[in-house]
Amino acid sequence: MPTSLDAFIRTIADFPKPGIQFKDITPLLADPDALRQTAEALAAPFQGKGITKVVGIEARGFILGPMLASLLGAGFVPARKPGKLPAATRSASYALEYGTDTIEMHADALAADDVVLVHDDVIATGGTAAAAAQLVAEAGSTLAGFSFLVELAFLDGRTVLPPETPVASLFTY
Ligand code: AMP
């Protein structure tokens, strides 16, 4: 039984480019107890909140997102990179340090009566999660919160998320 889950997250310097301290969650995924405890800890703040869908962001939001959805009794909806989803989509673009990026969601993936939790492994600048929130709003669904494994607090990502929406991060650096 792990005493501290954050011991299973390792920092890889200069990946994928110089200056980035990459938070690698693969050791945590590989440990059976750490994996289960992490999923349960992610779900805990949102139990009883009526969540009907977890939106997971490509790619690492696809790993714990479905486990989180299952623990909450919710369905899972992927938010993907452009051109990957086969049916009609909605898209939202967001600023990167240089240029922009885009995520897409199936246009019929969320309904007006859905109560949605947005999940990703890491929040850095917050642009990706904010774009996912925009897609939830365009679907007319209720955004109930954001769930991250790791928050890089020094980048202030939560300041670009919709105000008043709960943000839960398991580990803050
Ligand atoms: P952002 O839009 O800046 O909040 O970036 C969030 C996305 O980039 C997430 O999908 C993360 O998986 C990834 N990401 C950004 N910075 C890191 C980092 N230092 N370590 C691991 N993943 C990161």
Quick description:
With 173 residues, this protein is an alpha/beta fold. It has helices at residues 26-30, 32-43, 61-72, 127-138; strands spanning 10-13, 21-24, 53-57, 75-79, 89-95, 100-106, 115-123, 142-151, 167-172. It has four helices and nine strands, in the order ββααβαββββαββ.
Could you please describe the fold and organization of this structure?
It is a single chain. This protein is α/β, with parallel strands linked by helices and 173 residues long. It is built from 4 helices and 9 strands, in the order ββααβαββββαββ. The strands form 3 sheets. It has a 5-stranded parallel sheet with strand order 4-3-7-8-9, with helices on both faces. Strand 3 (53-57), helix 3 (61-72) and strand 4 (75-79) form a beta-alpha-beta unit. Helix 2 (32-43) crosses helix 3 (61-72). The protein binds adenosine monophosphate. Residues 20-23, 57, 60, 120-128, 152, 157 line the site of adenosine monophosphate.
Give the fraction of residues assigned to helices: 10-25%
Average pLDDT number: 96
**In DSSP terms, counting alpha (H) and pi (I) runs of 4 or more, how many helices?**
4
**Rough outline:** globular
Strand proportion, as a percent range, falls in: 25-35%
Strand order of the largest sheet: 4-3-7-8-9
Q: Secondary-structure element sequence?
A: EEHHEHEEEEHEE
> What small-molecule ligands were found?
adenosine monophosphate
| Class derived from helix and strand content | alpha/beta
Question: What is the first-to-last residue Cα distance?
Answer: 23 Å
Radius of gyration: 15 Å
**Low-pLDDT residue intervals, each spanning 5 or more residues:** none
Largest sheet: 5 strands, parallel
Number of strands: 9
